[in-house]
Structure formats: C-alpha cells, structure tokens
Design a protein that fits this description.
By secondary structure, this protein is an alpha/beta fold. It has two domains: 54 residues, no CATH class; 119 residues, 2-Layer Sandwich (Nucleotidyltransferase, domain 5), CATH 3.30.420. The protein contains four helices and ten strands, in the order H-H-E-E-E-E-E-E-E-H-E-H-E-E. The strands form three sheets. The chain has a six-stranded mixed sheet with strand order 5-4-3-2-8-9, covered by helices on one side. A two-stranded parallel ribbon has the order 1-10. Strands 6-7 form a two-stranded antiparallel sheet. The chain is rod-shaped and about 130 Å long. It starts with 14 loop residues before the first helix and ends in a 6-residue tail after the last strand.
C-alpha cells in the first residue's frame, strides 16, 4: 500500500467526555444488575416472622374445645375463669372422649362391665386408662423438650349435667391411676337460673 492512501478517523473535540460518559453508563448498568442479585432479605425475614407469630396467636383457641350436641348438655356457671391447656375428658350421654379421641361407649350412664377391671363393681375403666397413660406420656415428652411446659397431672372434665355420680367417680379413679390427680370441671359461663 502506498503511503498516500492513509485514512484517518475523525475524532470529535469532545471525544474524551463522550468516552467518560459511556464508561459511567456501563458502570451504572453493571451496578444496577448487581443490585438485583444482591438482595438483603433481613427485613423480609423480620416481616415474615412477625406475620407467623401473629397468625399463630390468632389461630390459637381456648384450650377446651366443646362441640355442642344433644348428647352433651353442660352445666352453666357465673364464673368467667379462662380454662388452662390440660387433657380434656368429655363425658357425653353416649360416649367418653379424651382430647377429641373417642374412647368408649356409655349406655344408660354406665360403662359396660367388660370394659372395667373388677366387672360391674369395678372403678377402673381399662380403655380410658390406656388413653390417659398415653396422654400423660405425651405431656411428659413435651415437657422434656420444652422447659416452660410442665406435666402437672391436671385433667379437665367436660360432663353432661345429668352424668351419674358413679360414672364420675369411675372416671376420676381411672384418671388418678394414670397420674391425673387434679381435676377441673368445665361449665358454660352464663346465668344458672336460665336453665
């Protein structure tokens, strides 16, 4: 090639300024791209934790959950004490239920003699004892993992107001054998004169 045919590129006067602007734009774009991948999730975790606590608190209900039915007419009281979280023994006209788990059938205010140790005159109800022993063991395991929870041997009795005294004593005796030796009786708050 001959030296006469040299080509020169035209460089504007503000070439350096334009190059500087291009580099700044490229840097800004790179910073924006990095910001997308470099998220700080601490604030998001704080919000989710607060929401979780709120939802758990709002989901919690009374420890004793009583489902109304024709089989269970609970006595009324004027007391307004909140129940504690204990093992719940519900005695309806036709069944005994522990923590919403059906245990056995009650007929005419009596437990079948074949379900009791000692027959008709016995106080120890075998299926009820098995369930209560399992419930006590569950409470103890929970207490072992959570030091704020203690197994205190308290059972809440939710009974139909016409439950015979004999059946009440059989249930309390059986619960006592399963190390539930303190009892609370559930009643519906209201005026006892209302019926």
């Amino acid at each position: 090639m001959s030296e006469d045919k040299k080509t020169f590129e035209y460089i504007p006067d503000n070439y350096e300024e334009e190059m500087l602007k291009r580099r700044q734009k490229a840097r800004m774009k790179k910073v924006k791209d990095e910001e997308i991948f470099d998220l700080n999730i601490n604030s998001l975790m704080d919000i989710l934790t607060i929401m979780l606590v709120f939802l758990l608190k709002s989901y919690a209900t009374d420890p004793v959950n009583i489902i109304p039915s024709s089989e269970l007419e609970i006595p009324k009281t004027t007391s307004h004490i909140s129940p504690a979280a204990t093992v719940s023994i519900t005695v309806a006209k036709s069944s005994i239920v522990v923590d919403n788990q059906p245990v056995l059938i009650v007929k005419d205010g009596k437990v079948d003699a074949s379900q009791k140790r000692g027959g008709e005159d016995g106080y120890f109800i075998v299926p009820l004892n098995k369930v209560l022993v399992a419930a006590a063991e569950k409470k103890r395991k929970l207490a072992a993992y959570n030091p704020t929870v203690k197994f205190e041997g308290i059972a809440t009795l939710v009974m139909d107001k016409e439950t015979p005294y004999r059946l009440l004593t059989e249930i309390m005796y059986t619960a006592g054998q399963a190390e539930f030796n303190k009892f609370k009786f559930a009643a519906i708050a209201g005026d006892p004169a209302d019926g």
